[in-house]
Write a structure and sequence with these properties.
Elements (H helix, E strand, L loop, with lengths): L20 H29 L3 H29 L2 H20 L3 H11 L4 E10 L5 E9 L2 H13 L3 E10 L8 E9 L4
Antiparallel strand pairs: 1-2, 2-4, 3-4
């Protein structure tokens, strides 16, 4: 019986059931498996990406437009906050808050506390309060004393006091022909509960 495979190619199914095609079939299956794996990975990647490249470009353009709109809004907000009107409102708010806090201060108690530390030879000339913290006032005072030692005694009394803290001398003036006393300007924190 002649083979239809061509001259020199005999087909003997008993001794060579698959002939030389076994290695080819194995390689073809391996390549087909690799191609299926690559196709599966590409499909999985595409499904995770959530759309076509054109959809991604459209989304990117939309995000860029939103970013530009937000930048314009941020610039407008900076101009509004940094303007003169906003500065005036903040200054007025601080002033009103300070006035409200000062109104809550008991001036009677302030003078009673000062009288308890003021030596007889020292006289209070001026006193100006300012808010230094939530529960603390800073008193800016001008006092006169006959002798520097009297003023030093006043400073010691302030330091020993429980309601006055951190006295600091800001300046002094010697006696003059019209005023024979020494003048001192100082600040001290006053811890009266507001």
């Amino acid at each position: 019986m002649r083979s239809a495979l061509g001259p020199g190619m005999a087909l003997n199914l008993a001794s060579q059931p698959l002939g030389g095609y076994r290695a080819f079939a194995a390689c073809a299956c391996l390549v087909a498996g690799l191609l299926l794996g690559v196709a599966g990975a590409l499909g999985w990647s595409w499904s995770k990406a959530g759309g076509t490249p054109q959809e991604h470009l459209d989304r990117q353009r939309e995000l860029d437009r939103q970013r530009q709109d937000l930048a314009v809004l941020a610039e407008e907000a900076r101009a509004t906050i940094g303007g003169d009107r906003a500065s005036r409102v903040l200054e007025q708010t601080e002033l009103l808050n300070g006035l409200l806090l000062r109104k809550g201060v008991s001036w009677t108690q302030t003078f009673v506390d000062l009288e308890s530390v003021l030596p007889p030879a020292v006289r209070m000339l001026t006193i100006q309060p300012e808010v230094a913290g939530v529960d603390t006032l800073r008193l800016d005072m001008t006092v006169s004393a006959r002798e520097p030692g009297d003023f030093i005694e006043f400073l010691r009394e302030l330091e020993r006091s429980e309601v006055f803290q951190f006295p600091a001398v800001r300046g002094s003036a010697p006696p003059t022909e019209g005023d024979p006393t020494h003048r001192y300007r100082l600040t001290v924190n006053y811890d009266q509960q507001l």
